[in-house]
Protein: Zinc finger-containing ubiquitin peptidase 1
Amino acid sequence: MDPCSVTCCTMLSCNICGVTVTSEPDMKAHLLIVHMENEVTCPFCKLSDCNQPLYDCPICGLICTNYHILQEHVDLHLEESNFGQGMDRVQCSRDLELAQQLQQEEDRKRRSEESRQEMEEFQKLQRQYGLNNSGGYKQQQLRNMEIEVNRGRMHPSEFHRRKADMMESLAIGIDDEKTKTSGIMEALYRYYQNAATDVRRVWLSTVVDHFHSSFGDKGWGCGYRNFQMLLSSLLQNDAYDDCLKGMSVPCIPKIQSMIEDAWKEGFDPQGASQLNNRLQGTKAWIGACEVYTLLTSLRIKCRIIDFHKSTGPLGTHPRLFEWILSYYSSEREGSPKVVCTSKPPIYLQYQGHSQTVVGIEERKNRTLCLLVFDPGCPSREMQKLLKQDTEASSVKQLRKFVGNLKHKQYQIVAVEGVLSSEEKIARRQASQVFTAEKIP
Structure:
């Protein structure tokens, strides 16, 4: 056992009596003075009163006949103790250095992995929102048509015909109407007049053409297609002739150009910055903010409303349905079963997709059901609604009950009239810090 141990303040403790001192000379004096006073029995004659002076080591019990030899012996004990403590300190220092190196390596690996994951997530978002420099509408249209030709699903002559039509459409900035279906609202009016016995009342928007995604915008063009639907309704409404004079439904690259022009006017600088002030030549998604910005730049009065959290059980949004019912039913009370309102359709946005609300049903059980045009629905399905006797199964694809809308958040853009030049300037100024109305 070591004769002494070093405390945190370098004190030396005697292992015999526990006394602590601050230095080796003090410890040596203590051992020789205090503990040498003990009576010693002579190992030679076994008498305690032997005249031979004897000295025993207070640490290990060794008996010496010479005081100086004992002193050197005790010094050796102290040196051994100090050496062991020094080695312990060296080992502790090495262990600490190794632990620090291991921690630094672990931190470096963690930062590297976090950086890699962040880059992957950033690239994923770039691909998802069309900002990865992979080309825009034109490039995707040509690429997908080439795939169709290679798979034998499109004749080369058809490819060249469609390419020529696309290039003409892009040159004049007008949609080629190849994904357009007209006459659906009129067909719905006939259907509700003659059938739908489980519906108490239905409100329909003004006339709307349906547009669906094509080879050029599949996977990212829903916002643009819904804008085309909304604009198709406004173009057929005399109340908007002044601000839309001479317009036709634009093609998607033209819509991108129009939004860029609105940004250049000073609308929504934050939104423009998020999309690098550029849409043309990209597959960038647009949402409610861009639709509001574009409509406002055209002097169309509209509101953007954010249903930012659920207002019903199981993540539903009954307040959204109530607001839309109020929007369409505000004009006439006590009206007939089918009400053709003067209200344009509503742009509806949620995470990853957008649709166009063209009406709302009040069922006989007092529940509400939206009527929705989805740009993901192809023309062949929408055209089934145009049959003389529209079937309930065809209308079913348009219906969205409260239980069908369970996304965390919904935003709508609702058109309310025309802006004066002064009102447009005021709204442009207000868009410097863009805020939507929130419900609740």
Q: What stands out?
A: Residues 1-9 have pLDDT under 50 and may be disordered. The two ends are 77 Å apart (CA to CA).
